[in-house]
Amino acid sequence: MSVTAAKGFTAAGIAAGIKENGNPDLALVVNNGPRRAAAGVFTSNRVKAAPVLWSEQVLKGGEVTAVVLNSGGANACTGPQGFQDTHATAEKAAEVLSGLGDSAHSAGEIAVASTGLIGLLLPMDKLLPGIGKAAAELSAHGGEKAAIAIKTTDTVHKTAVAGGGSGESGWTVGGMAKGAGMLAPGLATMLVVLTTDADVEAPVLDSALRAATRTTFDRVDSDGCMSTNDTVLLLASGASGVTPAYDEFAEAVRTVCADLARQLIGDAEGASKDIRIEVINAASEDDAVEVGRSIARNNLLKCAIHGEDPNWGRVLSAVGTTKAAFEPDQLNVAINDVWVCKNGSVGEDRDLVDMRYREVRIIADLAAGSETAVIWANDLTADYVHENSAYSS
């Protein structure tokens, strides 16, 4: 169910001592080929972590032989030393993996990803030896351990798989993700590694990945906070020997991304409700997304959802802050299938809305066109405030 679901990949997850609590904190994913194609998308935050800057350069070559991921420290806002540490991480991985004798590895083809507290240098005296330990534990069944090792405030590890064909013509897309806070869009919204044994070239991977992230990870908006470290990588080994039709392959990538994105929302820090916000009948997709984001980031509404209060006035208030095309007296809002607002005014009895369950569905009808978008968000809870007030202490 993870990055080793696709043939041609091995992975490992170990405790290198980066985290003081002794939990797993270092993961290694290796593409054993025969193809080493790769694509990636990264945070659009202008403050980028050293691993993001490094991996962006690596991906320009269109090939990645391995990915080193650590939790327990973001290596963001760490200056020149932080970038040197990322470089040293890739160099060490190349040295260790080349020493295994299967094939030569270059630091310039090894991506690095980090997650954790911003502003602290990583303990390289623990991380570098940990790479050797992880390499010794590489396995075709190591995907789950790798997924566990990249958790920070996540309560569960997150994996997914999809594929196509059957028998000798079968191929697979697998993936793992971490993320529970700072979940807001910026091309990606956490650390994700996707793998496939389909025989696909880098430009095709790039196209499929960007199409998938646009409607999945880029539409997760749990808390309106964008990370400095967001990274999503898609690696292809070609080990199946099958080159699927583009549409079929792209749909499999989208399916895995959508599954992982939904798991992120379900594990968001302190959340008690998952909110599906669907904007319909918008004049453009951009309008639909803008309205959906505005609703998702309205703290008054998020508090109301937490209190199981179907306060549709807060939905309209959020819609009204956008530049989307609409007429106020034509807006309609449904909460859990009850149209509590019709034509910008009172609709069905709000007491009909049942909000006892984890998922809350909001539909905002702009009555201005035919475009639609879905944004996922969470409620705002005291537990979220408590967890983030004590995050670095």
Describe the model:
Helix 1 crosses helix 2. The longest helix is centred in the N-terminal third of the chain and has 21 residues, at 79-99. The protein has a six-stranded mixed β-sheet with strand order 13-12-11-14-10-15. A five-stranded mixed β-sheet has the order 3-9-8-7-6, sandwiched between helices. The chain has a four-stranded mixed β-sheet with strand order 1-2-4-5. The protein is built from ten helices and 15 strands. It is an alpha+beta fold and 393 residues long. The model has no long low-confidence stretch (mean pLDDT 94). The protein has helices at 50-59, 79-99, 124-136, 143-149, 202-215, 246-266, 285-296, 299-306, 312-319, 382-389, and strands at 9-14, 26-31, 37-42, 66-70, 110-114, 158-164, 171-178, 191-196, 231-236, 274-282, 332-335, 338-342, 345-346, 359-365, 371-378.
Furnish the topology, listing elements before pairings.
Elements: E1 9-14, E2 26-31, E3 37-42, H1 50-59, E4 66-70, H2 79-99, E5 110-114, H3 124-136, H4 143-149, E6 158-164, E7 171-178, E8 191-196, H5 202-215, E9 231-236, H6 246-266, E10 274-282, H7 285-296, H8 299-306, H9 312-319, E11 332-335, E12 338-342, E13 345-346, E14 359-365, E15 371-378, H10 382-389
Parallel strand pairs: 4-5, 8-9, 10-14
Antiparallel strand pairs: 1-2, 2-4, 3-9, 6-7, 7-8, 10-15, 11-12, 11-14, 12-13
